[in-house]
Design goal:
The chain has 8 helices and 20 strands. By secondary structure, it is of the alpha+beta class.
């Protein structure tokens, strides 16, 4: 009887079923705001602004006219702190250790720690990616009630010529004309965008779907007799046929989930795209291949010491099971600690170009 139960339970637990999780290797935000590690406690950014114009006329024999120096703005802030831990009690450790002894291919406590370290790492990367896109579309971020604003000019956010692309966030609004909007923005209609070479247009798949579902887009394709030329109802094929020279449309599907604990059980929300519905980012070619900023990872003590603090993202296993440790024989435990101290530094806020084509309703 005991042998039967052992085999039965072993056959159940040896199959590890993993849910679908977010994959940090697919995140695009680092292309525009790469992570950098800096051994500092405060982030300081100096921005050179207002460099343009043309040389003035000059009459020989008169004094040369002076012009204003390039604008200069310095911003300094203390970056946010993000840290959390997963706790293993003595009961947890013995339970997983027992399973590990039943059969070598069953996940024991060490393998379980590896799984939870991966979970913490994915949560850190999701936090970093979220802050990148929040800074791009909101012009800054908030932490513990404090707001860091980088001052993206209001004219940098394009809006539709006519109607919003969707009214409910689900169906396309046929009163809108996404093809006309895109052509207006990238082909010289929007004066503030004219000085930029736009190399890519980034939006989430839901926003991209509104373009193709829109009756005006479909009418354009039909009226141009475009079916043989387009070769498929793909957003890049359709729009590049209708707007020659249009940069690639990138459908970025990076996502995260909110979570909460209800009645002692972990509950996660539906997936949310990092790029909100109705938001569009215009990738541009900046001088010298420069980026619009960085995600700055700063000092921490988790991977260093008082004399020599560490810097960057951290994942640490604190084993407090041995005699002399904080837990020791009386209360042994293991903590897995993960986090990052840092935040976005938007070095070129005046070069961040976006569009808002849908605004979700506010309220309950």
């Amino acid at each position: 009887m005991n042998e039967f139960l052992t085999n039965e339970y072993t056959s159940v637990v040896k199959k590890l079923i993993k849910e679908v999780v977010n994959d940090p290797s697919t995140y695009m935000g680092s292309k525009y705001l790469p992570s950098v590690v800096m051994p500092v406690a405060r982030v300081r950014t100096e921005i050179v602004e207002a460099s343009g114009g043309m040389t003035q006329e000059h009459l020989p024999g008169t004094n040369t006219k002076y012009i204003e120096r390039a604008g200069n703005r310095v911003q300094e802030f203390t970056p946010p702190f993000y840290k959390e831990a997963i706790h293993y009690t003595e009961k947890d450790i013995l339970f997983w250790r027992e399973l590990g002894q039943n059969m070598t291919n069953i996940r024991g406590v060490q393998q379980r720690i590896d799984i939870d370290m991966d979970r913490l790492n994915r949560r850190i990367e999701a936090r970093i990616e979220s802050q990148r896109w929040l800074s791009i579309f909101n012009g800054g971020f908030s932490w513990m009630g404090e707001t860091v604003s980088f001052g993206i000019p209001g004219v940098n956010t394009a809006v539709p010529i006519g109607a919003a692309w969707s009214l409910d966030g689900v169906t396309a609004n046929n009163a809108a004309n996404p093809v006309m909007d895109l052509r207006y923005w990238v082909s010289g209609g929007l004066s503030y965008f004219r000085k930029y070479k736009i190399t890519g247009i980034v939006m989430n798949p839901n926003t991209a779907r509104w373009v193709l579902d829109n009756i005006n887009t479909r009418t354009y394709v039909a009226s141009y007799g475009a079916n043989p030329a387009v070769g498929g109802y793909d957003i890049n094929r359709v729009l590049k046929f209708l707007i020659p020279g249009l940069p690639d449309i990138v459908e970025y599907d990076g996502w995260y989930q909110d979570e909460s604990v209800v009645n002692g059980k972990l509950v996660v929300s539906d997936a949310n795209y990092f790029i909100p519905d109705g938001k569009i980012f215009f990738e541009t070619a900046l001088p010298g291949g420069d980026k619009i900023g960085e995600f700055v990872q700063t000092l921490n003590l988790a991977t260093g010491s008082l004399a020599e603090p560490g810097a960057g993202k951290f994942l640490v296993v604190e084993d407090c099971t041995a005699p002399g440790s904080k837990g020791g024989p009386s209360n042994p435990y293991v903590d897995i600690i993960g986090g990052v101290y840092g935040g976005v530094s938007l070095d070129r806020p005046f070069d961040v170009l976006t569009a808002t084509v849908y605004t979700p309703p506010v309220g309950p």
